[in-house]
Specification:
Blueprint (H helix, E strand, L loop, with lengths): L2 H37 L6 E7 L7 E9 L5 E9 L4 E11 L1 H12 L4 E3 L2 H16 L9 H4 L24 E3 L6 H12 L5 E3 L12
Length: 213
């Protein structure tokens, strides 16, 4: 390699390295900023709360709570709630989403194209009430709730509406999902409440559904 070519190669390599570092730093700054908004979400006003249409008929609700950041972008949490038995099965959170993009892309996708506006009180009752109900049987909320909870208000901030029935006909009713350890869940119900004090339904094996988040 000629001396001049070597210098050109070194300069090009330096530019690529600096560009790569800048991109990495930009991504890191964006991730930090998003996490900052998640941690401080309770300081922001609620933009809206939604569930999928018909959520109260099947024992499973997807609840979305969104807040308006100081820069007008959206920070939100999505909660997959089994209010018949298991409580909070999954949680997802994100921040720095432009309002138009949130309503046009994120909200329909999370709620299968059928967003139903609900009150903050009802949204919090579905989520916290299901977690409390499931705790009686030893079921804990999904690990991602550790951060997703900060999009919600504290549990005692909103009065309970009384519109949500936890369990079915006065008993926990477990409906198996594609990622559940169904046998372990049924054994745990038997230990906690005794035979005859719960119901369950095992679904036929099949391909798992698309990711809901």
């Amino acid at each position: 390699m000629k001396k001049g070519d070597k210098k050109k190669w070194q300069k090009a390599l330096k530019r690529r390295t600096e560009s790569k570092l800048a991109r990495q730093q930009g991504r890191a700054a964006g991730a930090t900023s998003a996490l900052h908004h998640i941690r401080h979400a309770r300081d922001y006003p609620i933009e809206g709360c939604w569930a999928q249409k018909g959520w109260g008929k099947a024992g499973l609700a997807v609840v979305v709570v969104a807040r308006r950041q100081p820069d007008r972008n959206i920070v939100f949490g999505t909660y997959l709630v089994d209010y018949y038995c298991l409580g909070l099965k999954d949680a997802y959170y994100n921040a720095n989403i432009p309002p138009g993009q949130f309503r046009r892309d994120h909200l329909p996708k999370m709620l299968q194209g059928q967003p139903l506006s609900i009150s903050p009180a009802l949204a919090h009752e579905i989520i916290y009430g299901a977690i409390e109900y499931a705790a009686q049987f030893g079921f804990r909320p999904h690990p991602d709730f550790k951060r997703a909870q900060y999009v919600l208000d504290p549990p005692d901030m909103h009065p309970r509406t009384g519109k949500v029935e936890f369990g079915k006909d006065g008993k926990p009713f477990y409906i198996s999902g594609p990622y559940d350890n169904a046998e372990a869940i049924v054994r745990q119900l038997a230990r906690k409440v005794g035979e005859g004090n719960y119901h369950y339904m095992m679904q036929i094996d099949g391909p798992p559904p698309d990711e809901w988040d």
